[in-house]
Design goal:
Blueprint (H helix, E strand, L loop, with lengths): L1 H47 L1 H7 L2 H18 L1 H10 L4 H7 L1 H21 L3 E2 L6 E2 L3
Antiparallel strand pairs: 1-2
Helix pairs in contact: 1-4, 1-6
Length: about 140
């Protein structure tokens, strides 16, 4: 009886360890793409607003962008919770084939947040084909 009770946690521990290793191997290389996409959005808004952007750059604003980047990476880590949970369940095989959908949904959500934040602080209205300057 004590043999089975020690075998069950050991096998569960091994499954969790394998799931965490698999999650790290999957999500970490994609974090570079995630950060690059978000950085491109920020840089695009900076370039679009160039005459205005130059006047508002300050240490405090760079610090805010840094804090937002850290928060975006903390949100990215939320994928690990679901990934490891599903990998230790009976749905592991189908999850490994479909978890890229979570990556796309998460990236779309993050892009939406970045675009929303950038648009609120942008003097340029980019919904117009001509990109006209709005009053600051």
């Amino acid at each position: 009886m004590s043999e089975t009770s020690t075998d069950v946690p050991a096998s569960f521990g091994a499954r969790v360890r394998e799931a965490v290793s698999e999650a790290l191997g999957y999500w970490e290389p994609r974090r570079i793409v995630y950060n690059a996409v978000l950085a491109l959005i920020v840089l695009a808004y900076f370039a679009i607003n160039w005459p205005y952007s130059r006047t508002v750059v300050s240490f405090d604003r760079v610090l805010v962008v840094f804090v937002l980047a850290v928060l975006a990476n903390i949100c990215y880590c939320a994928a690990y919770l679901g990934d490891v949970f599903v990998q230790t369940s009976g749905f592991r095989e189908s999850w490994l084939k479909w978890r890229w959908v979570i990556l796309l949904i998460g990236m779309a959500f993050a892009m939406g947040l970045v675009l929303s934040f950038a648009r609120r602080r942008s003097p340029v209205e980019i919904s117009d084909p001509g990109w006209r300057l709005l009053p600051a």
